[in-house]
Model the fold of this input.
Amino acid sequence: MPSFADRFENRRRLLQWLSASPLLASPSLALGGVDRPSKLPELEANAPLIAKPEEAINVFDFEPVFFKNVPPAHIGYMASGIDAETTLKANREAFDKYYLRPRRMVDVSKVDTSVEILGTRYPNPIIIAPTGGNKSFYPEGEVAVARAAKTGGHLEMLSTSATTSVEDCTAARGAPIWFQLYASPKWEIAEHHLKRAERAGCPAVAITVDRVAGRNQETFFRLRAKDTRECKTCHEPGVQGSVKRKPAYDGLDLTGVPNLQSANMTWDFIKRARDTTKMKIVIKGILTGEDAALAVKYGADGLIVSNHGARGEDSGRGTIDVLPEVVEAVKGRILVLVDSGFRRGTDIAKALAMGANAVGVGRPYLWGLGAFGEAGVAKVLEILRTETRVAMMQCGVRTVKELTPAFVRRV
Done:
């Protein structure tokens, strides 16, 4: 193990690197972000990096280790929002608009954090949100994430852009996982993905509806320019080259496909998907009550309130702000999940109280993956489970269903 002096020096060098990085332009990503303890800036700036997962106090402790371990371009890919990153900032700052209302004199010595999601019961309400290219952060990639999900009993969603196949990820999880679908402009591509996921045993597909255009990922582009590695082996030009390391596209001829965006998607796509697969259909990327009502109308089994972790648009509205109007529009008729910006157990408790059935987490487990592999992911998820249980106990609730709107207020 490196000495304290060595670890301190590593921390100092990392802070020097970050000070020259556009990452500091985004408060939610910087070491001095909105969720950093403002009364302890000196300790935060001078503390050595954690050397093993067990030393972590919160999920943010994994972030600087991720920055140290992962190449600049891959950091940028993970960390980027788009444009001015207003939504990226809003996803975190919006939580400060809401407070929990603790109730006292309730026996919370036994707390049940389990939830039922489309007929399956999970021991906790924390979902592994789909993220692409996990082998860019750690060699085992999605397999390491799946094993950590198995340890914690989490529902896992696998991205179309994953660097591990749905079959291998399912085997590592030891239980069925959900598949997240990027539709692309050509129906036959979506049909291929749907049928393969169903054959692999996926009980549900989360159809992403917010990838309709290109995106100006400024942080990614700036850090990629600073990356001196030779990347042509992994990243080839053209659509076919872009999916070289994405097993979901194996066997597909993408000749003539201009891009993998789904700008031509309409509500008829949901009907077509329903006619193609027996999997449950969840629509990912809903941000208004109007679209939530349409999701119900067109027969979706659920929806995910999501702005793609601020990677899909820069409207400036955090998903926790969107959640109430979506819940009101759905009126309990279908499943409501939410993701984007969740970093604390209190964040999760607020969303559950506001009507979400469960909560997806993305970047924090990637920090753990890039920092320490499977052990890092497992510890991130353990911290979030512990914080969520504590938040429930502090509110005086013993089950997730007891977390009702009465337990949260807007400032």
Notes: The first strand starts at residue 98 and ends at 100. The CA atoms of residues 31 and 44 lie 8 Å apart. Residues 99-410 form a domain with the TIM Barrel fold (CATH 3.20.20.70).
